[in-house]
Amino acid sequence: MGFKMGIVGLPNVGKSTLFNALTKTASAQAANFPFCTIEPNVGEVGVPDARLDKLAAIAGSKQIIPTRMTFVDIAGLVKGASKGEGLGNQFLANIREVDAIAHVLRCFEDGDVTHVEGRVDPVADAETIETELMLADLESIEKRRAGLVRKLKGNDKEAQQQDRLLADAQAMLEDGKPARLVEVDAEDAKAWRMLQLLTTKPVLYVCNVGESESVEGNEHSAKVAEMAAAQGNSHVIISAQIEEEISQLEPEEAQMFLEEMGLTEAGLDRLIRAGYELLHLETYFTVGPKEARAWTIRKGTSAPQAAGVIHGDFEKGFIRAETIAYEDFIANNGEQGAKEAGKMRAEGKSYIVQDGDVMHFLFNT
Predict the structure, then answer these.
(1) Rounded to an integer, what distance in angstroms lies between the CA atom of residue 245 and that of residue 243?
(2) What are phi and psi of 195, to 5 degrees?
(3) Among candidates 256, 265, 228, 218, which has minimal Cα distance to 108?
(4) What's the CA gap between 23 and 244, in Å, rounded?
(5) What is the pLDDT of residue 32?
(6) Do residues 197 and 137 make contact, with C-beta atoms less than 8 angstroms apart?
(7) Coil vs helix vs strand at 275
(8) Residues of 109-133 as b/e, b for ≥16 C-beta within 10 angstroms?
(9) What is the pLDDT of residue 171?
(10) Cα–Cα dist 234/317, whole Å
(11) Terminal CA-to-CA distance of the chain, rounded, Å?
(12) pLDDT under 70 in the chain at which residues?
């Protein structure tokens, strides 16, 4: 599994420019007016992982297949979106379908690019979006709780659980805080996810700065960093301008350009890494002469569940997983060397897969 990140923001913050650059497409019309992205544009990118190239080189793999990340560029939001202002209803529907939200915040000064509120204040922009999502959640909760009344009178257990969780979310929202701050017990976790509340989505703030500020950021991005830390969220500093230029270059030229700018890696790499941390994701590998492939799983995934990411039958008929840690695979020059050194392990159904594990699954058909 990869994961799906919705790119959101007020109009003219550089959201579509960033999307175009990250997905190396021109499918999102980046223009200096509100609502230039009418339909959510979807782009997939391979997740950069230097480990995969090293594994493939040792195994002589003919093909390298990275895991995938999906970006969804969602129509610009304005105040009143929760009441259907601008493209609010469409925005709110699209955002329900993503795993995480990347708030692109304007942290650059440019008199030629209009700001919908007539000023540059990324913290206020973030609050505008958060407020609209909270208002939409409150409206949704009130409707859903009203719809549960009949089932509650009949002592429906599922309805009771749902109403209790909705009440917890409502109390948090009425206190002016997002629903993601509600503490949820393990037995309620699945039902909580099924509520699909907008403010339960993890948030990553993307500070869009000017080219000259791409390394250290500026006073605007510093304020965002302070806000993110206070909320327990994370942030990354990216220049959409630089990403757009990089996207037009060959890999070697792009690396030279980055070095000239004083950057060690592209913004895409930083954004993906931050997204992985945000969603508690990790990677395991399958390696052979035919292909070296990366697979994304959530931290805490068992071996059978990890096998199921490849194919459902692998999980159903799981017997065991032959497992080599990435470092051991490299140090012993591949599977055979690792096996001879006693570094290949046979792991059963209770094994929790670790980031970087090289795995081969045995299963009954």
Answers:
(1) 5
(2) -65, -25
(3) 218
(4) 10
(5) 41
(6) yes
(7) helix
(8) eeeeeebbeeebbbeebbebbbebb
(9) 96
(10) 39
(11) 22
(12) 1-2, 25-40, 76-91, 111-118
Q: What token pair was written down for 252? A: 């070697």
Please report the pLDDT score of residue 219 as a whole number.
94
For residue 233, what pLDDT is reported? 83
Distance in angstroms (rounded) separating the CA atoms of residues 27 and 45: 14
Paired tokens of 20: 């175009």
What is the token pair recorded at 101?
Answer: 């939200």
SS3 percent helix, strand, coil of the chain, rounded to 5, is: 45, 20, 35
Task: Give the model's pLDDT for residue 190.
Answer: 92
Place of tokens 């979310």: 169
The number of beta carbons lying within 10 Å of the beta carbon of residue 11 is 23
**pLDDT (0 to 100) of residue 234:** 87
What DSSP assignment string belongs to 135-169? Answer: HHHHHHHHHHHHHTHHHHHTT-HHHHHHHHHHHHH
- C-alpha separations of 332 from 142, 297, 306, 324, 361 in Å: 60, 26, 24, 10, 21
CA distance 227 to 218: 14
185 CB neighbour count, 10 Å cutoff: 8
CB 317 within 8 A of CB 363: yes
Written as six digits, the tokens of 287 are 């390696």
151 CB neighbour count, 10 Å cutoff: 15
Beta bridge partners of 105: 207
Closest CA relative to residue 105, chosen from 266, 246, 212, 227: 227
- Both tokens assigned to 124: 């206020």
Q: What is the pTM of this model?
A: 0.81
Structure-token pair, residue 72:
């969804």
Cα distance between residue 332 and residue 343, in whole Å? 9
Contacts of 227 (CB under 8 A, 6+ apart): 123, 126, 205
**What is the rounded CA–CA span in Å between residue 32 and residue 11?**
9
Instruction: Collect all residues with Cβ–Cβ distance below 8 Å to 132 and sequence separation of at least 6.
Output: 77, 79, 80, 81, 82, 88
For strand 203-208 and strand 100-106, is the pairing parallel, antiparallel, or unpaired? parallel
pLDDT of residue 232: 79
